[in-house]
Amino acid sequence: MAIDNQATKVLTGKVRLSYCHVFEPQSIDGGDAKYSTAILIPKSDKETLRKIKAAIDAAKELGKSKWGGKIPANCKTPLRDGDEERPDDEAYAGHYFLNASAKNKPGVAKPIGKDANGKTKFAEITDTTEVYSGCFARVSLNFYPFDAKGNRGVAAGLNNVVKVQDGDFLGGRSSVNDDFANEEFDADVDDESYLD
């Protein structure tokens, strides 16, 4: 059964990013440094979940050629239930989640309007503080089969991230506004000479 690459590709609805490393690759447990993020999908987003499950199934079909012609009984899949696996983390409540990674830097952008043909225009995000654990985005993923050191399954590749909304920081970090909104400062905010 032939599967085209479009069958394993998913454009998500609005999801939340956690453990977000899309500007600098990180090494986890001494492995190769990769760009990565956890993606929290609301359980109410049935369409994104349907597309992810279909792409995982398509990747399993592709994997048969790596796995001796059949899908292994213990085939690992990336989609996990936040309520079951992270019961003490309120950010994961009511969500499924998966981890996506890439060796190459993903595209990171934000929508900035429409062109003359009504297509969305994007601007690249280079400010590393603008996309963070806790913000909301739409993400382009590609699911693929793997066979590594006896582990067989499907993983999620990270293609592109489009930030769509700010959110509360995850991981205990607070924003400047939260910390200092009610504080008095001696500097005149209209006079930038104090920055010299």
TrEMBL record:
Residues 173-196 are annotated as: Disordered. Gene3D superfamilies: Nucleic acid-binding proteins (2.40.50.140). SUPFAM superfamilies: Nucleic acid-binding proteins. Residues 180-196 have a biased composition (Acidic residues). This is DUF2815 family protein. It comes from Cohnella suwonensis.
